[in-house]
Amino acid sequence: MLTNYIRTALHKATYELLEDGTFYSEIPECQGVWANAATLEGCQEDLQDALEGWIILGLRLGHTLSILDDEVT
């Protein structure tokens, strides 16, 4: 269940190549989840780490996770 949530959230991520040559990504449905790295692969890894931390912190604080359309199986 949690794996599917993470997979779905990462599928919704947006990526942008910035003027300084680094990559920026965010998951709009998960407020505050973003990453910036020198490579696309690094950005993807950092984004997943940020998402996992966001989920853990949110659950510890009693927050409800954002509802995501289950587009990924």
TrEMBL record:
InterPro entries: TTHA0281-like, TTHA1013/TTHA0281-like. SUPFAM superfamilies: TTHA1013/TTHA0281-like. It comes from the Bacteria. Pfam families: UPF0150. This is Type II toxin-antitoxin system HicB family antitoxin. The lineage of its organism: Bacteria, Bacillati, Cyanobacteriota, Cyanophyceae, Nostocales.
